What we know:
The protein has helices at residues 4-8, 101-105, and strands at 11-18, 24-31, 35-40, 62-64, 68-75, 78-84, 90-97. The two termini are 14 Å apart. It is mainly beta. It is globular and about 35 Å long. The protein has two helices and seven strands; from the N terminus they run αβββββββα.
Amino acid sequence: MYNDISASKYEEFKVTKINVNNKHQKRIFGIDVQKIYNLKRNTSRRKTIFTVFENHETKNPERFIDDIISFKIYEPKKFRIKFREKDGKNHLLRYTCLDEKTPVRI
Length: 106
């Protein structure tokens, strides 16, 4: 059951973000009472000579929920979020989830 306390608790979901170039990027979609988080999902956590130089940050690792203009589930496993950027422009992000329950939970 969802209430004010459970809604404020941080949760993470495995998703695939579809960027503006239609490239699919595996991500962790985190959410709490104030922000949503966009984190890279790494298949391997161990450091090698190759991963030491990789960028593990995303371009926009967090956004305020107050900047969300709209949230829409447009297919059973897909949703999109429209944000207001700092420069006043709107930005649309698309995501695909592993199952049909995840977009509803978000």
